[in-house]
Amino acid sequence: MKLLAAVAVLLGPLALATAVPQLEHRVSYDGYRVYRIATHHNAASVKAQLKGFATVPFNLDTDEHLDVAIPPGQISAFESLGLETEVMHEDLGADIAEEGSFAAYRGVEAQAVPSLTWFDSYHSYNDHVQYFNDLQAAFPQNSEIFTIGNSYQGRSIFGIHIWGSGGKGSKPAVYFHGTVHAREWITAKVVEYITYNLLTQYDNDTTVRAVRDSYDFYILPVVNPDGFVYTQTNDRLWRKNRQPRSGSSCVGTDNNRNWPYMWNVSGGASTNPCAETYKGQAAGDTPENQALVAFSQKLRNQGNGIRLYIDWHSYGQYILLPYGYNCQARAANHARQTTLASAVAARIAQPYGTRFTYGPSCSTLYATTGSSVDYMTDVANATYAWTIELRPTGSGGGGFVLPPAQILPSAVEQWEGMKYLLATM
Ligand code: 0X9
Ligand code: ZN
Question: Which of 25, 38, 156, 291 is at 20 to 30 A from 136, Cα to Cα?
Answer without folding.
Answer: 291
